[in-house]
Amino acid sequence: MKRKSCLIEAFDAKKVGAEAKNKVYLCGSASEEKMYKNTIWYKSLLDAEKTCLKDDKIKKFHYKFEDGREMVEEYNLDTQVMLRRSWKVKGKLGGEGKWTVEVGDPIPDATPNNDPVIIECKDQPVVTRRNTRINLEWRIRNMPYPIETYSIKANDDEKCVVVSTTNKKYFKKLYIPELVRLGLPVEQANVYSTHNFNTLVVVYKKPQQLLDMEKEWFVELQKVKPIKDIPSDCKTQ
What does the angle CA 150 – CA 151 – CA 155 come to, to the nearest 5 degrees? Predict the structure, then answer.
C-alpha cells in the first residue's frame, strides 16, 4: 500500500510544488550511470501490464499500473521518439475517468459545446507539449510580444520553468514531470527559447540520465509484441 501512495504522488505533476524536493524517488542503491533504474518511475514501468498496437510507423503502448491508473504512449519507429503520452485517472466516484495529455497535441473533445459563455477566446495563449530526441519543448501560441518581453526562469524548488512577461500580461509555470520522476534538478543552463510567428517556444535540454533512460526503455518496449498489426490504409474511427 505504501508503494502505491508513492506511485500516485510521483505521477501527479500538479503536486510537484515546493514539497517535491523532499520526496524520495529512489528505492535502494544504484550506480550513478544508471540511477534511473532504481527510481519508482522506472520500476513502475517494468511492473505495469503492457499491451501494444502497431499502426504503420507508429507503435502505441498501453500501460496499466498497480494504482489503477492507465497510460498510453505513442512512438515513431523511425526516430524512436515518443510523440504522445496520455493518462487516464478514474473518477472520484468510481466512474469512467477522462484522458489527459501530458505530451503531444490535446485530444479533441467529441462532446459538442453549445454554450457561448464558456467558449475560450481564440486569442488566448495555448500551451502544447512536445518531445524530441534531445529536448523537452513547450509551444505557446498567441504570444505576440517581442522576445525581449519574456522572462524564462528555472525553478528547482517547484520543479518547473516559469514564463512571465515584463508587461505582466502572461504568467505560466511549466512543470517537468520527467525530471521529478528521476529526482533530477531543474537547471537554468538547460533552458532556452525562441519566438516566431506569435509562438514562444520554450526548450529544456534533456539531462544525460533522461536520455539514457529513454534510449534503454525504447529497447525494453520492443519485447512487447503487438497484439494486432493495423493496415496502413485502415483508418481508425
Answer: 145
